[in-house]
Structure formats: C-alpha cells, structure tokens
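Quick one before lunch.
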Amino acid sequence: MMKKAILFDLDDTLYDYEPAHQKALKAVYPIVEKEMGIPFKKFERLFDLSKSEIHRELAGTASSHNRVLYFQRLIEKTLKTLEPKITLKLYNTYWDTFLKSMKLKKGVLQTLKKLKKEFKIIILSDLTAHIQLKKINKLGLTPYIDFLVTSEEAGIEKPHPSMFLLALNKVGILPFDAIMIGDNPNKDVEGANSVGIDSVLISNKVKRNQFSEDYKKPDYIIKEIPEILRILEDIKKVKK
Ligand SMILES: [Mg+2]
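Model of the magnesium ion complex:
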C-alpha cells in the first residue's frame, strides 16, 4: 500500500536543536552581563529555572516554549521588576542567533526533494507558529513543505491526537495513509501510534526491544533521515 503523506517533527528531527540553542544563549549573555551583572553559570541556571517554571505552569501548551516568557521571568527574578526593552532584546538576540546557527541533519534536503515528488509533506511541531515558520524559511525547507501544524494552532501538544488529526485533515487523508517521523518516543511515536499512523523514531541510541508496551513501540527506527526512502519502498512492496 502506498502512503500519501509524510509527517515530520522539526526540532531534533530535521536539524539539531542543542548547538543552535547553546550559540543563542552565548549571544544573549553579553546583554545579561551588561544589564544584570551576573556570571554566565548563574545566567544558565536562572534560564533553566525560569524555563522549567513556565513549562510546569503552561504544560501541554505552545506557550510553555515561548522564550519571551522565559526571559521575562528571568529578569523579574533577577531585577525584581519588569524590563520590556531588555526582555525583547534578549528574545530577539536569542532567536536571531538561533536561526542563523541551525544546520540541517545529513541528507534532509535531498530526501525531501525525492519525497516531494510522491508525497504530501507536513511538519508537526510543538511550538508557536511564528517561530516554526521562521525556522522552516531559514532552513530552506519551504519548497518541500505542504502544511504545518503547530501546538499553538492545535491548542494542545503532541502526543495528543488533535495534533495528528489536524495534520490528516489538512491533507484530507486517513491515518493509514500517513507515516510520522520524529525523535521523541513519548511525543512523536506515542502520538502517531495512538491514532494509527505508522511511526518512525530517528535515534542513534534506542533499540526496538527496549519498548515494553506496544503503544510505545515505533514501527521503524532509523539513524538518519535518508533511511526513510527505503522504508517507504518496502511499505510499497509488501502491502499491495
Ligand atoms: Mg523533536
């Protein structure tokens, strides 16, 4: 049987998040040092603390990832007052640097180019639309992407079925027509499994037999994005 659409997670699936994030934090720090006079280690700790507070308070929503809230919280904790100018400067510097620093994983563009001829391509991602649109644009993915579904748009994050069903609705297809590729077992794999979409986990570390419950098991595990081409060929052959 032929798939009709490929659903991709974005962060840590098509590009590596951590190097871009680290560069962005380093670019933000001189502003922090000037305005707040705290050492880098303390800034990192405060950022993580602010982030985990916002995560907890806004769990399951796109806003839980909004860096403007992290920086606002960090400044309110440190300076005990609201500083709109500094908050926005940190936010803009963070994303300007992050976007410039992102690098696609090996083989992503070539793979998308091939897939685009046969399939609809959808990005399914837990964040605000504004930032994910910027990432897609900056990574040069625009020509290959048909639809984007963010948790901001769906009102709830992966693994909630709403995210996945909204993606299927946008294309006008059924779950068995789609395959989902992502790096997060709890979000991408469980979410796809829960609505009957084939799941592909991209990971260097995990093995299929380490998943005890069926609903957690990815249908396929790959190490690099181009491997998806072979999987799709196999699916085409086997399930006629
Ligand atoms: Mg991810």
